[in-house]
Amino acid sequence: MTNKALLIGAGGHAGVLYSFFEDQQPGFLAGFVDGDPSKRNALTLPYLGTDDFLARAVKEGFTHFVLGVGSTRANGLRQNLYQLACENGLSPAALIHPSSILSKQATVGKGCHLLARTLVQPGAELGDNVLVNSGAIIEHNCIIDSHVHLAPGAVVCGGVRIGSGSHIGAGAVILQGRQLGQRVLVGAGAVVVHDVPDGKTVKGVPAR
Ligand SMILES: CC(C)(COP(=O)(O)OP(=O)(O)OC[C@H]1O[C@@H](n2cnc3c(N)ncnc32)[C@H](O)[C@@H]1OP(=O)(O)O)[C@@H](O)C(=O)NCCC(=O)NCCS
Fold it and tell me: How far is the CA of 170 from the centre of ligand 1 (A)?
């Protein structure tokens, strides 16, 4: 069976992924879904419908999905859509940009996206659906749980653990060895010097 993917979302982040797949795997993306029908003209792909389409996508010949929903704070929507698409029998498409560097001694789960100029060092372990946005760095021996978003330019120093669903803001730095819980939100430009418990938002330098 020919691989055929649908893009979930039609916003700015979806546009970035669309551009990548059109360059690297022309024809792979065969349509998009979005919860907001007014976005149907946002991409030069056929509009398939709202997220309800996911339930019949396999019957319509789709094999894969590309999660095109980003986040600026909470990752719940990314996690829910990822799980819904998987439950409906679609496989998550991985994205490893040719300008990214992924160590052979790192492990990466399903459906992870490593965008342009990212770096993942030896001993790093990424769960499923981790979004490593443009220029973000994951140093050696970090554990990044599923559904985490590292926004553009975030730097995660060695031995850090980040719990599932957390969002690390653009340009933030997490100092070596720090432990961040689940659904943590780190503001853009923050420097995290202490451990952060589940669900907490921290920002600033040092982050509080
Ligand atoms: C930290 C953050 C979540 C706060 O969002 P918010 O609750 O909506 O905050 P507000 O914009 O209402 O600002 C509240 C206060 O925090 C300050 N603030 C906001 N973001 C800040 C940041 N990143 N660092 C330091 N202070 C920040 C504001 O200046 C404001 O201060 P004031 O009360 O003295 O005026 C958000 O600003 C942020 O940094 N999100 C991450 C964005 C990101 O990663 N984007 C990349 C997407 S790809």
Answer: 11
